[in-house]
Amino acid sequence: MKEFLLTDHDFKQIAAIVYDACGIVLGDHKREMVYSRLARRIRTLQLENFKQYLAYLEAHKEQEFSDFINAITTNLTSFFRESHHFDYLQSHIIPKLLVTNKSTRRVRIWSAGCSTGEEPYSLAMSLHGLFPTDWDVKILATDLDSNVLAKAQSGTYTAANVNGLEQHQLQRWFLKTKDGGLFKVKPELQQKIHFKRLNLLQDWPMKGPFDVIFCRNVVIYFDKETKAQLFNRYCHILAEQGYLLLGHSETMGKEHSEFKNLGKTMYQKVIYG
Length: 273
Prior knowledge:
By secondary structure, the protein is α/β, with parallel strands linked by helices. Helix content is 41%, strand content 20%. The protein is built from 10 helices and 10 strands. The protein has helices spanning 8-22, 31-44, 50-59, 61-72, 83-100, 118-127, 146-154, 167-173, 187-190, 224-237, and strands spanning 106-112, 136-143, 156-158, 174-176, 182-185, 193-197, 210-215, 238-246, 259-263, 266-269. Strands 6-2-1-7-8-10-9 form a 7-stranded mixed β-sheet. Strands 3-5-4 form a 3-stranded antiparallel β-sheet. Helix 2 (31-44) crosses helix 4, helix 3 (50-59) packs across helix 4 (61-72) and helix 5 crosses helix 6. It starts with 7 loop residues before the first helix and ends with a strand. The relative contact order is 0.12. The mean pLDDT is 92.
């Protein structure tokens, strides 16, 4: 017997709140995940069941809602995850940007759904030394979850987190703590990235245009209608011939004619006329 009662009505109510807030679809197969993550909040608040928690959430929305969303959202990442995207960035995208952006000397890259920061730091490492020093190159890293965003901003990782990095990358970009248990990103790399909390389904304060958007393993949680809206918004904020990179299990349907498929979940904005 489970510690807390989660009725069908409770689960449907939670799923509706999450969908309305951030477009994430919680099917019945996510019920165990929802239980285990929100049970922690119920224990912390010393409540008796999910019905009580939902009532508490409604009564204390301003204080609790952030913890509620943080508990639900999934954060799984690693440095240079899906490495072919970073290879393509270095071998194809950056050489083209050096030509197309020569007059402005400006490049903007967005890591949308940056989680604990491994992706934007991987981007910053990939860009190093590939642009002249007088170019204005910046990375925006956003996430819905304020807890993982705080970890990303701190730039502090365990030995297990950095396990996949080459030794020369560790030496070049990280400082080891005195006890050797943690690795901290050097300020030189952190300065290239601006971290900001953002709900992708709400207003975007930035104007763009972005040359490259990494939105990997984010839209997999959205339904078809929400995905379509998000892809359209990405199209509008991308520069001409800008690039959109999705996660390994995410695809864009042929109905999105504003993008052409480059293969391996990589897409480029199409110019008409």
